[in-house]
Structure formats: C-alpha cells, structure tokens
Amino acid sequence: MSTFLSLTNPPLPPPLAALSRAATRQEPSSGHSTNIRPLRHRLPPSSCPNPLILLSPPSDPLPKQNETIFQSFEWYTPPSSTTPKSHWSLLTTLLPSLSQFGITKIWIPPACKAADAKNGNGYDIYDLWDLGEFEQKGSTPTKWGSKAQLEELCRVAEGRGVKVLFDAVLNHKTGADYKERVKAKKVDPLDRNRELDGGEVREIESWTGFTFPGRGGRYSGREWDRRHFTGVDWDDLTREKGVWKLGGKEWCVDVDEEVGNYDFLMFADIDHRHPDVQQDAFDWVKWLPTQLKIGGLRLDAIKHYSFQFQKRLLRHIDDNVEKGKDWFIVGEYWREDSEFLAKYIEYMDHRISLFDVPLCSNLSKISMAGERGDLRDLFKDALCLWKPNNVVTFVVNHDTQQGQSLETPVAPWFLPHAYTLILLRANTGVPCVFWSDLYGSFASGPSSFIPPMSGNPTLLARLILIRKFYAYGTQHDLFSHPHCVGFTREGHSAHGGGAGLAAVMGNQWGLSKLKMYVGKHHSGEKWIDFLRLCPGEVMIDDEGWGEFPVSGNKGCSVWVSETAEGKDEVINLKFNSDIYGIEAEMNRRQSMFERRQYEIESMSRRALASNLPTV
C-alpha cells in the first residue's frame, strides 16, 4: 500500500476521478474504484545507459555463468496418477539436459499437501508440513509425487549445480478438518472496506479448524482454528459464497489497496499478525531445508499479506535458516506499477526479487498489436529499469497462460522475440523460462495438446544456450525504429572464447537491416544467425560494425561469429520436447495410416491386373 511505503499518490486526472466516484456509488458497469491507480513517475526505455558497460567487481574479476530459471510446471500439468511416472520423477530425468544447456535454477510447484491431494496444484494449500509423506485428503503423494521422489529430485539438482526454488503458499489455507460457528460481517467483494447489510454481525459456519490427523503431530503439533484467520469465502450454514470478515478481526493495513484492501484473496485467509501464525511460518521455513536440498523460495501472493510480516520472515531466513543468506527469493506481486514495486523492494532491504509484471504486460500488448506495435516501447517503465538486480523477467507463467485469471497472451510469432529480449540482454534481471514453451501445454484439455513454441522448442533451447555462452560484456542498444530494433553484446573472454552477439527483430513483413557496433576486437569476423532463421553472412568491418538483417516474416535473428566456441553445440542442438510421447504416437499412427494406404493401393492394383483382358 502506497501510504505504508511512504509513496505519495498524485491526484487522478479528471476523467479517472469521475470514474472513481461513480464506482464508489456502485453504479452498474462503472468498474470499481480500487483498480484505478494514480499515474506516478514512469521511466522511458532510454533510461538504460547506452552503451551499458558492465564492469566486474574487484572481488569477482570474471563474470559468472548467466543465471536462468526454469518454471517446471504449467497450470494444466497432468496429475502423476494419470502418467507413467510422477512429475517429480519426470523432472529428475529432464535435469541433465536442462542443466547442460544453461538452466541454473528450477522453480518447482507447491510441494505441500493440497486440499485436493491428487489433482490440486498446491495453491489450494492444506498442510505445509506434509510434502507427500502422509495419508491425508485421500492420498499420500501430492499431485506431483511422493516426498521420496521430491528428495531425489532435489539431490540430483544439487549434483548438477541447479538450485531448487520451493513455491511457498503462506497466504491462506483450505480443506479444513472441521467447521466452526463464528460471528462475522459480510463485506463487498469489490470494496473490502465496505460492510454490507448495514454492518450486521451474523453467525456463520466457517471451515477454519485444522488438526491434520493424518500427520499425527509429526514435525509440528500446532493446530489451527478461527483465531488464526481474518476471513473466509464460504458460509456453510447458508451454503452461500461471499467475503466474510470474522468477528473481532480487521484486515491487515500493510497490504495492497486493490479492492479497497486486498488482504483477503481466497479460502480461509491467514492472520499474519497472530503470534502462533508467525511462529509456525518461522519454524516451517527453518525445517524445510532439513528435509530438502533447496536454494531459495518463490513466495506466492505476497500482495495479500502483511508487508511487516514478510520483512520479518526474510530476516528470519537470513539469521536462522541454514545457508539462508544464500537463498534466492522471488515474490509474486501482481501490479503494473514499477515505482511502487521498486519501493516495495527497498522496504524489504533489497532482499527479495519481484517478477517484472510491467514488462510482461508490454510484451503482450505490443505483440498483440502486430504490425501496429511500437517496438521502441518494449521496456517502457519495466521494473528491470528500476531494479535490475532484484527482478525476474518472464514471458508467460501458469497464472498468465490461456484460461487463467491473469491471462496475458503473447502472440505466438513474438515468442522468439520476447525470449531473446529477456535471455540475452544485460541489466534485465534473471530470466524465467516457462514449462509450456519447452514442453507444450494441455490448456485446451487433456485430449488436446498445444505444441511448444509453435512446434519449434529447439529455438528456445538454442536461445538459452546462447545466453550461457555469449550474452556477456558491454551492451549497445538500437531501439530507434518502431518496427525493427536490436542490441549487441561485445562478449567476455571468460565465456564462449570472447564471442559476442547481435540480436535484431522486427514486427513487419519485408527484410530489414540494422547497422550495429559489436566491438573493434571482432573486426574481420564472419557472423551467422545461430537461430538458423536468416540465411547469409555478416562481415564485421575494421571499426567493429556490421549490417545485420532479419527475415521479413516478423522475424528474429541472433548473429554470432561462425568461429565462436560452442558453435556446433548451438547449431546442431536438437531438443526433444516429446516427454509425453504424443509426437511419437502421432508418427506411429501416421506410419500405420501410410502402411495401410499402401496395402489398399497394392490390393487395388492386383485386382485391376487380374481383370485386364489378355492381348
């Protein structure tokens, strides 16, 4: 919330102010005022220095290998009970290839027991202390597999130098073991500060009793009841959905101000001011690395719980958790306001990174505009301009993919452009690659598979490998044309033999070229497109300049010296994305169809020949 972060809110322009007043009166179709945000200071794309000279600190004379996160699931990942092997076991088999072409961190789905243990993704959290070990909610394993399989995944990841990021859901609970009669007030879902029914206190039945009988007190004997929650979204007495604020409770004030106060998100909302709640979280985060070899956390829905609690949790991790100071921690704060997000990072003493939501929005809007999109605005007010060392950039994730509440579509033709931007540029945080862009999606249903990257996942695998080898050194930007932009990296002798790169992309039909500087030390070199999308060669002149083309079908190319170290590994990379055997099954059916067609044609020819008259 802006006031809590000492961030002033400028007055709304008159049209937005009128809309806000109308929404407050709850006029039909007026929208709701709490989503109308003030327009604060915005950074233009030119805020990034050009050239951007990256100097290694004295204590680290050589730049380390670039970090790349892989989100290892989608919302529609099939449950382990319906596949030949569990998702944890599948990830274990995929780790060698993922680490080989540059994945250094793997974000795993919530591994704690869900209310729907067999099918729930884990955001319907039931028991933090059950990692797929106890018979609860109809299953011992979670949707993703058993605790033993998860332990094996983390062990193999550590051996490969890949850090596991554990998805922690600390905002709410659901799937209670018993219900309670409580006093509560119903509030407006669009304005949580407005009590309905004249503020009448009524008795409801809330599912807020948690005893975790299947675990029997193992690891933690703490039980939960109505004292530990602020609100619920279901009255079992009247069988009515809504938002109820429990008696004697108030929403936390240090949360996001969307819908008036966005403390309550769903299910049974946890009261993070309660000392038992805080102690449970502190105990759990200290216990977690004693069970699994992890290297950090992804914190879910942090806009919905106390900022002060979040800050105390981060300090607790640094002070009391084994190797906690080395953990990489990223939070999900969905808000298109980079100045606000930057202030939040500062409040957390720069101990947390945030996902670059404004950049994701830019990628979506510009790609969906097609030829009318202005590529110069790709990084307009992106969070990576404000806090490049505390940001995770992404193109798609499980919340923004098809059919989800935060769906933010990126046009398929633009996916190579988007990944080139987040993977190969400097000062753009740590990029996160989405599961479905490497392995496909079941977003259209379990019987309808969507291939990854428009059927060419090798393209994305090559980009990750190019990041690993060549995305180092000084960066030069050329973002002066609305329909064709590019940038170069000069390279560093510690990686790829010092080879650099030149990326160029367009959003219109027709061949385009950009003259860009790659460094005098590359003069005389012959560069080729490592994505294999644009034919030809580019000669670097004596001053370190080259004219780099991009194919005319809204193309994207990444040019590197043809003698660069690792060239053959990149060019010849063949990425196998067919982890479910769908492509193999389609090929098998096609072979059977073609064989059957051949047999029918042969029979027809023989029948025809037997009926021909003798000459």
TrEMBL record:
Ranges of biased composition (kind: Polar residues): 26-36
InterPro entries linked to this entry: Alpha-amylase_C_pro (IPR015237), GH (IPR017853), GH13_cat_dom (IPR006047), Glyco_hydro_b (IPR013780)
Disordered: annotated span: 1-45
Domain Glycosyl hydrolase family 13 catalytic: 67-467
Pfam families: Alpha-amy_C_pro, Alpha-amylase
Sequence similarity: Belongs to the glycosyl hydrolase 13 family.
Protein name per the record: Glycosyl hydrolase family 13 catalytic domain-containing protein
